[in-house]
Structures are given as structure tokens and as C-alpha cells.
Amino acid sequence: MNVASGSGVKVLFIEDNPIHVGLVKTLLGESRAPIFQLQHAGSLQDGLKLLEAVPVDIILLDLTLPDSEDLDTFIRVRSFAPAIPIVIVTSLDDVKLAAKAVEAGAQDYLVKTQLSRTSLTRSLRYAIERTRVRDAEWDSPMFRLAQRQFLKAAQYMGLDDNIRQRLLFPQRTLVVTLPFRRDHYTEVETVFGYRVQHILTMGPTKGGIRYHQDVSLGEVSALAMWMSWKCALVHLPFGGAKGGVRIDPTGLTGHELQRLTRRFATEISPIIGPEKDIPAPDMGTNERVMAWIMDTYSQQVGYSVPAVVTGKPVVLGGARGRNEATGRGVVYLIEEAARHLKMNLSESTAVIQGFGNVGSHAALFLSDLGVKIIGVSDATTGIYNRNGLSMSSLLEYVGQNRFLEGYSEGDEITNQELLELECDILVPAALQNQITAENADRIKCRLLAEGANGPTTLEADEVLNEKGVFILPDILANAGGVTVSYFEWVQDTQNYMWSLDEVNQRLKRILQDAFQRTLNRAEKNNVDMRTAALMEGIERVAQAKLARGLFP
């Protein structure tokens, strides 16, 4: 439903205090666009009965009722009507409760003493519109997770509502359908491609391009949002962006991959450029793909533009160390966390989920520090050896066979079994939503370093934090890649190359600083590391938006 159309909005208010019912009725009665039609229930049970009998667009919910109290009230209503947006209206001015409520899925948390017609009606309109848009175009577990993480941090920060609403969705999205020829020249495939720019305030936008069969607008939007917080957290002059094509690249020949890439680059070329938006590799893409994008863009403008992408070959202006930067950054941060936790890495064990670019380099660098790697996995299988795995042997095998399946120097286990191995350090470096409420209690590590984007749900976060697991959240742990991409962009714009030692030293300093700021905020605000990292990034973005003002 589009609330801007003037049609009536059916609101169910579950509240036992007649004074508060009268207040809300008065405030909503003053609205003329849209018209709100209010129904009232005085208990949770009566509210659930009305939900069964009458169609409702949105629920206003008090948390303290005669037959239910606190967050349990919201959870019971949410379970009964999962598709209907819920706005909490309560007397409980509790930032931690508010954070938990939006984390659990509430669209907003309003305190009764602060209610006004504007705040109430706008909250209802935004809640309905967000739900409608999400269900129509943005429906993705990753995007829901990204928004919930943001809303939780925003509650702790007391973020201005005007800025909060502006940051929930990307500023610019481009959705394209593009054709490319198969090697059988008469066979043409049509696929969906995306480029999303979350924030245009901070400078040019920055983010990878992924080729995967599950790419969607919602997934790309989530990744762009996380990239905004990541860049802000490590103080890079970029907004967040992300792109992708919904296709399985493993089924393409090299020629088909090149034709697909060049067509996609042509489609997104109007909104990319060294001072607009700078793509980089991500899942399913690599430096060769970046070289094709650079060449296609350069052909269109008539001269070579190395700075249009990062993560390209060194011979074309790529930065030394970029290929291994994300995995190296994960290990730099593990070193910092180990110092904080007083862990001896040379006596520690590690498990790595995902043996692609990030996971394999993280495993290699951890091994170089004396950490015993007892388990690794990829899409085909997991390999476990309690006595430790040889990195040189593993890398040689994968180089020859592409996948871990068939590797003989360990026991084959599932990815799920691998995650639940007892170890000191666990590095999820594969896909999102790997650690959930279902398996979090069986995770047996001391330090969790997220090499992947969104591998841990918020419900799992709570379980892990209660267990005392120290979490290096994704926007901090895997920031090494975008940091060295920034170095590459700077070198390309200056026509000056840095040595590998210079790159690694600068990377380490930046990540150490980001870790310390995040840890300090976590301790100061008594929040977990993920929320602290988000607060660091979001605060910087909010300051930039306020500094630039609003045009016109």
C-alpha cells in the first residue's frame, strides 16, 4: 500500500491505558494525508483476536499490558503477524530495550512522553512504506540484517531521526538486464545486473562487484550499506557501493566471462569513474575481471583510466598486496585482539570456513605466526586434522584441483561440523548467515574474526556475547581489502607506486587505529564490538551529512 495515495490506513493500537489511547486517537485524528482508522484492544489476547478477524496495515503496541510485559509482548505479536509492521509506543525510556526491540524487528520505538503528531504519523508512514518497498524490491535476509544492525546502533546513539531515515536505503540504485553471447554464437543469455551507491556524501563511492547466482538488489544494497560503515570506520574518503550480476560464473568459459563483463561495464559506465564510483573484485570476480572493466571504460572515454577500478593487475596500476589484503587485514586484527585477550598465538588453534581468496590468505598468514590450522573448508567439503594442516600442501592441492574435495591429509567433515569444532580462533570467510541462533550455542571458539560479510545473525551475536566470545565484526575484520583499494586509487591518481612494505605498514597502522577506537567505544558505551564498530562508522557519516547540509 502506498500511504501517499490518501487511502485510509488501518491501525490497531494494543494499549490498556485509556488516557494514552485518547492521546494517540487525537494525534492521528489531526492527520489528513493519510487518514488513519484506529482500532483499539486493551490486552494482548484481545489484540490477537482482532488481528485474526480484521485486516490491519500496521500495529501500534504498548509493551506493558495486563497479560504480557516488556519485549515478550512484541515477540508474541510479531510471531502471530510476521508480515505486519509494528511500531512500539511505550512509557519505557530504555535505550537498551529500544535497541533490542528494533533488533528483533520493530520498525520504530516511540516513548509516550515524547509523542507528537509529526513524530507519530511520520513513524507510521515510514514503517508502512519500508515494509512495502522491502517486500516488493528489497526482500533479502542480508538487507534485513543490515538494516536491523543499523537501527540497533542508531538507538544506542540516539541518532537524529531525519538522518536515520536517509541512511536506511541507498541513495542511488541501477538495475539492468543485459545480454551476452555464449560461445555458441547464436545463443544469447539475459541476466540481471546491479550497481548500488549507498552514500554519495563522503566522496566517490567504493565497493566490489560480485558474480553469483544469488545476487539480488537487496543483497547488493546490504553490502553497499556495510561498505559505507566500513569506509567510515577506517576513515577512508568514500561512500559505500556494491555491484553484481546474478549468474554462476563457474559455468562460463573465459570468453563468455569477458563478454559478460564488458557488457556489464558498458551498462554501468554512466555512474562509475575515478571521481564517481570505483568498483573492485568481490565474490566470483578477480583482477582479470577488473582489467576488462578498466579497458572497457577506457575505450569509451578515449584514454586509459587506471583509477576507475581497484584490484587490477599491478602492470595496469594495481597496488602491491591488494590480492591478499583482506586476508592479511583479518590476521592483523586477530593479532590486536589476541594482545587484548592475552592469547599466545603460537599456542593457538584456528578453523577457517571458506578457502577462497580471503580464507586461504588468512590461513596462510596465521600459520606463519605459529597458529595451528586444524580445519578448513570450501563449497565442496571441510577438512579436519587435529594435529594441524600443512598450508603449502593445501594450497598446492587447491591450485591443481580448484577445490578441497579429495584432499587426503585430513578427515572430511561438513561445513556445519567445521564451524562447531573446538578451537581458539574461528574465521568464517565464506557466505552470509552461517552462524545463527540454531548453532551459536555450539560454537566453541574464543575469538571470532569475520572474514565474510554478514556471517553472523544478530540472534547469534547475543548468544556468542553471553558466552564470552570476542567478536571482530565484519566491517572491521575484513576492512583490509577496501583499505588497500584506497591505496591503489591514491597511487593511480598520483601516478606513483608504493612498495609492498609501505602498503602493509600503512594497512596495519590504519587497522590498529580502527580496532582501538572500536574497543574504546565498546568499553565506554558498554556495547558489543559489532555495535561499537557500527556506531563509529555511522557517527562519522552522520557528521558529514550534517556538515554538508540539505539542498535545497
Name a few traits of the molecule.
552 residues, alpha/beta, Rossmann fold, 3 domains, 7-stranded mixed sheet, 5-stranded parallel sheet, 17 strands, globular, disordered N terminus, NAD(P)-bd_dom_sf, oxidoreductase, Glu/Leu/Phe/Val/Trp_DH_C
What do these coordinates show?
Helix 12 links the parallel strand 11 and strand 12. The longest helix is centred in the last third of the chain and has 26 residues. The protein has 19 helices and 17 strands. Strands 14-13-12-11-15-16-17 form a seven-stranded mixed β-sheet. The protein has three domains: 129 residues, Response regulator (Rossmann fold), CATH 3.40.50.2300; 145 residues, Rossmann fold (3-Layer(aba) Sandwich), CATH 3.40.50.10860; 157 residues, NAD(P)-binding Rossmann-like Domain (Rossmann fold). The protein is α/β, with parallel strands linked by helices. The N terminus is likely disordered. Helix content is 46%, strand content 17%. It comes from Gimesia chilikensis. One of its GO terms (biological process) is phosphorelay signal transduction system.
